[in-house]
Amino acid sequence: MIMGVLNRTPDSFSDGGRFTDDGAASAHIEAMLDEGADIIDIGAESTRPGARLVPDDEQIARIGSGVRDAVRLGALVSIDTTSPVVAERALGEGAAIVNSVSLDVAPALGALCARHDASLVLMHSRGAMTGMAGFSVYDDDAYDDVVADVSREWMHAAERAMEAGLSRDELLLDPGLGFAKNARHSLELVARLDELCALGFPVLVGPSRKSFVARAASAADPDLKEAPPEQRLGGTLAACLACASAGAAVLRVHDITPTRQALAFAAALTDARRATSASAGKEDLPR
């Protein structure tokens, strides 16, 4: 599934300020649905490093008619927030998923989603965005084994959400690429995503336009400059294909059509290889 991003913020790292107006936001929702987005993820609090915490009432004001408009247009809506107050407001307006960038609120959001028969995405991170040092900046030795540590810390939060009443079937795991992780950590999570998928929960990943994509690319090819967010589509698509092939259930992206095209080509290529293999097998049979 493809989750399209709608940032109703003035300061998000990639497209802050573009969709703060209700009309522009509604038009973008409609465009993403026309392009084939399965889920629309609406957020009103930036998660860039050093971003300030946004009070509940300000988040609600920023969201405006966004959730209602998306539901009216037939979207499956996710609300991107760590606030139970904001989440409950959005669920009351028709949202079906809460997408939290914090594990700390797992019990409260788990109980809330259980009451509303909604799903909960828990993203792995450590600490608030206000304390993040920068994009893909994190102590290289902060994890003994980043996949094992992320798995353990995420499972602890998931258990607290389930203890609060949430069904296991309504939980999704997000490894939190770029959050409290440097570029090497995020790249390793992508490379070993199959291990996270083996935990038995649907996995959502959000590599779209993130700094680790540019840093990994420039490290592999020193002639490549570290690209700004709007020039990271190639690396984003490569990351999305890698995650999808490893078993990711949801890709959270800004660019719907290119992502769908890349996934469709990968599927066509797989079919072509199978057909070629089957044909070769028939030719090898004794006559």
Give the arrangement of secondary structure elements.
Blueprint: E1 2-7, H1 22-35, E2 39-43, H2 56-63, H3 66-72, E3 76-80, H4 84-92, E4 97-100, H5 106-116, E5 119-123, H6 146-163, E6 171-174, H7 183-191, H8 193-197, E7 204-205, H9 211-220, H10 233-246, E8 250-253, H11 256-284
Parallel strand pairs: 1-2, 1-8, 2-3, 3-4, 4-5, 5-6, 7-8
Describe it for me?
It is built from eleven helices and eight strands. It is of the alpha/beta class. The chain has a single domain, classed as TIM Barrel (Alpha-Beta Barrel), CATH 3.20.20.20. The protein has an eight-stranded parallel sheet with strand order 6-5-4-3-2-1-8-7. Strand 3, helix 4 and strand 4 form a beta-alpha-beta unit. The longest helix is centred in the C-terminal third of the chain and has 29 residues. The radius of gyration is 20 Å and the shape is globular.
Quick structural overview:
It is built from eleven helices and eight strands.
Query: Could you describe the largest sheet, including whether it forms a barrel?
Result: 8 strands, parallel
The total number of structural domains is 1
What top-tier CATH class fits best?
Answer: Alpha Beta
Q: Gyration radius, to the nearest Å? A: 20 Å
Amount of helix? 40-55%
The CATH architecture can be named as Alpha-Beta Barrel
Number of DSSP-assigned strands = 8
Mean pLDDT: 93
Q: What sequence of helices (H) and strands (E) makes up the elements?
A: EHEHHEHEHEHEHHEHHEH
Distance between the termini: 45 Å
Assess the beta-strand content as a share of residues: 5-15%
Class from helix and strand fractions: alpha/beta
CATH fold call? TIM Barrel
Cofactor: Mg(2+)
Protein name: Dihydropteroate synthase
EC number: 2.5.1.15
Enzyme class: transferase
